[in-house]
Amino acid sequence: MNEFLIDTNIYSHAMRAEPAVVSLMRRASRIAISSISIGELLSGFKGGTQERKNREELAEFLDTPRVSICGVSENTAEFYAEILDGLRSAGTPIPTNDIWIAAQAMEHGLRLVSMDRHFASVAGLLLLSPEASVPQEKSEEPDGQTES
Question: Model's pTM, two decimal places?
Answer without folding.
Answer: 0.86
